[in-house]
Amino acid sequence: MSGSPLLGMTVGQIREKARADAARVLRETWGSPPAVPVQPVNIARALGLGVFSAELGDDAWGMLIGSSAGVDIYLDRDQPTNRFRFSCAHEIGHFVHRDADIEADQAFVDKRSDAGHGRADEIFANEFAASLLMPEAHFVSAVRAGEDNYDLAQRFDVSLQAVQLRRHHLNL
Ligand SMILES: [Zn+2]
């Protein structure tokens, strides 16, 4: 596995890279301009990932696992739909960040208990997920048109908290 390209980057630079990578993935796998709500499972499959819903236990949102056949995403089935969608987009972010360089039997697990930690690859994956599910141009124009956070959450099929964070990070 190669070293993290995020090493030495500031948080702002990591977020910029995540936004640019998400915009590229949207263009290449979903369409331009992107129709919303974006369907991250379809995008994952377009990238060649297997996507599965499973019982992962109380402490896992999702995981990325390498196998001899490729790379798979497993998502805990016991999470609300909008959280499930975010978890899927987050795992795609890890896949993109690692440049698909995941060896067989290598597993990365996202735990609920450390969901808020500030590691560079988690900042990247969260910003990537937000940018994938709430495409920037569409999000900005909906905010400028006066949609409130509840409308935005419904439009993009994300949680209210995800909308609030997206607005915060885009200074809207
Ligand atoms: Zn993660």
Q: How would you explain this protein's 3D organization?
A:
- By secondary structure, the protein is of the alpha+beta class.
- It has 7 helices and 4 strands; from the N terminus they run H-H-E-E-E-H-E-H-H-H-H.
- The chain has one domain: Arc Repressor Mutant, subunit A (Orthogonal Bundle).
- Helix 6 (149-156) packs across helix 7 (160-169).
- It is globular, with a radius of gyration of 15 Å.
- The model has no long low-confidence stretch (mean pLDDT 92).
- Residues 90, 94, 110, 122, 125 line the site of zinc ion (ZN).
- Zinc ion binds next to helix 3 and helix 4.
Please, what is the average pLDDT?
92
**CATH architecture descriptor text:** Orthogonal Bundle
- Report the CATH topology name: Arc Repressor Mutant, subunit A
Distance between the termini: 38 Å
Order of helices and strands: HHEEEHEHHHH
Tell how many strands the DSSP assignment holds.
4
Largest β sheet strand count, sense and barrel closure: 4 strands, mixed
Please mark out the parts with pLDDT under 50 across 5 or more consecutive residues, or reply none: none
Task: Briefly summarize what is shown.
By secondary structure, the chain is of the alpha+beta class. It contains seven helices and four strands, in the order H-H-E-E-E-H-E-H-H-H-H. It is 49% helix and 15% strand.
